[in-house]
């Protein structure tokens, strides 16, 4: 039973498909949470001034529909002279992929904090739509003392290997001839290859850790030629 409870209550998955349906709108009812999210979005250079929840109530005679919550982002609107004239609201689904990802990542972290921490949060294709500066800042937060959750990220962003990660935090995957993926840690390579004073990304590109796809560019060009 404890295992089922963990999957239900302590596991949060944010994949590469933009979907905010699994976030409870109630997490933004707290003034403190809304202010924290607003501050995060401002310092993340998104241009978003705030978030509002729009709840759609079904008509009284339609018993099959449930109320739905829509996330709206709030932006400043300027006139030709650069003065703010009003605020406009945009559905989160109409924002760029990167902005949507930033909002959902922030909501996942705040959601975990509201539920008293100790969550395991998976980010699939972590770099999707995000600038490298944002990736670096988030990884630094994941490794900070204030973080009490466990984060697991999958990524093809090689430079993240050099972001002050411990060797036991870095894992590679490589497919064998059957198409099965093996998972192994830099820690398993011993002291010679797991030394953190030499850039992991440089050694990875040299093939010292494996897990490098073999791409035959000349043959690829031929294959795409009609």
UniProtKB/TrEMBL annotation:
Q: What one GO molecular function would you report for this record?
A: ATP hydrolysis activity
InterPro entries to which the protein is assigned, alphabetical: ATPase_AAA_core, P-loop_NTPase
Span of domain ATPase AAA-type core:
88-162
Pfam families found in the cross-reference section: AAA_21 (PF13304)
State the protein's name: ATPase AAA-type core domain-containing protein
């Amino acid at each position: 039973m404890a295992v089922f409870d963990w999957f239900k209550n302590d596991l949060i998955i944010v994949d590469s498909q933009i979907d905010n349906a699994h976030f409870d709108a109630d997490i933004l009812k707290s003034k403190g949470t809304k202010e924290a999210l607003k501050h995060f979005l401002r310092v993340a250079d998104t241009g978003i001034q705030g978030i509002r929840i729009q709840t759609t109530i079904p008509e009284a005679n339609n018993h099959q529909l449930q109320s739905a919550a829509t996330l709206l982002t709030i932006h400043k609107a300027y006139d030709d002279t650069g003065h703010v004239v009003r605020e406009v609201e945009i559905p989160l689904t109409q924002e760029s992929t990167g902005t949507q990802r930033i909002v959902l990542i922030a909501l996942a972290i705040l959601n975990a904090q509201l539920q008293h921490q100790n969550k395991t949060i998976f980010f699939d294709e972590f770099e999707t739509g995000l600038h490298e500066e944002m990736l670096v800042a988030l990884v630094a937060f994941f490794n900070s003392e204030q973080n009490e959750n466990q984060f697991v990220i999958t990524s093809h962003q090689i430079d993240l290997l050099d972001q002050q990660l411990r060797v036991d935090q870095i894992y590679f995957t490589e497919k064998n001839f059957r198409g099965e993926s093996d998972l192994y840690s830099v820690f398993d390579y011993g002291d010679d290859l797991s030394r953190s004073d030499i850039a992991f990304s440089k050694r990875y590109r040299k093939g010292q850790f494996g897990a490098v796809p073999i791409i035959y560019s000349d043959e690829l060009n031929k294959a795409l030629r009609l």
